[in-house]
Design goal:
The protein contains twelve helices and 16 strands. Helix content is 39%, strand content 25%. With 428 residues, it is of the alpha+beta class. The longest helix has 23 residues. A five-stranded mixed beta sheet has the order 1-2-3-5-4. Strands 6-7-8-9 form a four-stranded antiparallel beta sheet, with no helix packed on it.
Length: 428
């Protein structure tokens, strides 16, 4: 009897431990702690459709409504392009803006590294945010869906498959990143102009390997577009599948297209040489624009505006999250920094929406909108004396996308509130 009681107690303990382990299992991974400036993330809700589970919190609910519609509308098209099916539903985490996305603890730390222009994905999960433009939101979704499918095809879905293929496969960055952009929109005017600019630049990225090393997204998208135009759209999915089987890019191209990989690279170069007539293009390094100002390679110019009298040019730069505004004097060809905010962060995507600004008609004052600790501020700055006045803007404005001076008592904002973007007159 004593041994039977011990046996029952031992069995019960095993069941409790097993249920505890199972109960602690959660589909969402947690990464490093991040500073949070509000408690909106405490309450998450979800919508579930045929192919997706969409998670949202309070102020991202209206964005989630758009996400559901866009995702279901575009799912089948991307599925047909890649000719692949998934048994599991894709999970989408919806954020009201980029600032909230960067505050969230959801997801592994690698997901939030500085990958400009790429939808963040891990496994079957993706992370999207609203920047005031529903076209950009839809583009994020299409790229994310494609990335989840590409990872499922190449690396599999089970842990064993993922580990095995991750160790054996060593694909170049252009392969997946370019394909997700191609799945979003195979080609458009922006992609065409960006590639044309690079190929006609002084560096002449006519060698695919050089372009892919410095600009993998541009190179990858141009390669997939070239393959579609010359070998047909069906070759895309075939190449992806065969690459997983062969675990070698060169052998996969040779098997599917019956042409050596080196020859494909030469054909790619000839395709764009003819397209842009590069043989007749001469790079003129003596060309000069009206405003020549220095900037580092890591600095992206995010906004610029001439003063009302055209004598000065104000422009904002973002260097790995460090935001600055400079004023360039066109006549004297000199510039000075008039605003600085935040610090460099190479590990997270920089929010290039801020700072925003507009000139006062007196040609010496700037109205500046920036964000600090998830709170927007409006500053009136005298660019000569550097004196300024500022006040916080109500947090009901989730994100401000543009600012235009009307008069001293009215500023016109394009902003988002409750997940909707609209125009607002703001009275300082």
């Amino acid at each position: 009897m004593y041994y039977m009681v011990r046996y029952l107690v031992f069995t019960l303990l095993l069941l409790i431990i097993a249920s505890t382990i199972q109960g602690q299992r959660i589909e969402t991974e947690f990464g490093k702690n991040r500073v949070q400036y509000h408690d909106d993330f405490r309450a998450w809700s979800q919508y579930e459709t045929e192919n997706f589970i969409v998670y949202y919190y309070g102020k991202s609910r209206n964005v989630a409504h758009s996400v559901i519609q866009f995702a279901e509308q575009d799912h089948d098209e991307i599925q047909q392009l890649l000719e692949h099916r998934m048994n599991d539903k894709i999970e989408i985490m919806v954020y009201a803006d980029l600032s909230d996305l960067k505050q969230s603890n959801l997801g592994t730390s690698e997901i939030f590294t500085n990958q400009k222009g790429q939808t963040k994905t891990v496994g079957k999960k993706m992370f999207v945010y609203f920047d005031g433009n529903h076209r950009n939101l839809r583009s994020q979704l299409r790229q994310g869906i494609a990335s989840v499918y590409i990872n499922s095809i190449i690396y599999g879905t089970s842990i064993q498959e993922v580990v095995q293929n991750a160790l054996l496969l060593n694909l170049p960055a252009w392969f997946s990143s370019g394909l997700s952009l191609f799945a979003d929109e195979s080609w458009n005017n922006d992609a065409n102009e960006e590639l044309k600019h690079l190929l006609m630049s002084k560096d002449r990225y006519i060698r695919f390997e050089k372009l892919a090393a410095d600009h993998p997204e541009v190179a990858g998208r141009s390669m997939w577009y070239f393959l579609e135009q010359n070998y047909g759209r069906t070759r895309i999915s075939q190449l992806v599948y065969i690459t997983r089987i062969y675990r070698n890019l060169e052998n996969s191209f040779n098997y599917v297209l019956y042409i050596p990989y080196e020859e494909i690279l030469r054909e790619w170069a000839l395709f764009y040489i003819d397209r842009y007539d590069l043989d007749n293009f001469e790079y003129d390094e003596n060309k000069r624009d009206i405003a020549q100002f220095k900037k580092r390679n890591e600095q992206n110019i995010t906004h610029l505006k001439f003063s009302p009298d055209g004598s000065q040019l104000a422009y904002a730069v973002n260097e790995l999250g460090k935001q600055k505004i400079f004023v360039y004097d066109i006549q004297n060809k000199s510039q000075k920094r008039v605003f600085s905010n935040d610090c460099k962060n190479p590990f997270q995507t920089a929010d290039e929406n801020y700072p925003l600004f507009d000139w006062h008609p007196n040609n010496r004052s700037l109205y500046i909108v920036y964000e600090k600790k998830d709170v927007p501020y409006l500053r009136r700055l005298d660019v000569i004396s550097r004196e300024y006045e500022e006040k916080s803007i109500p947090e009901s404005y989730q994100t401000i996308f543009s600012i235009d001076y009307v008069n001293d008592n009215r500023i016109l904002f394009s902003a988002a509130t409750n997940g909707f973007s609209d125009l607002f007159f703001y009275k300082p």
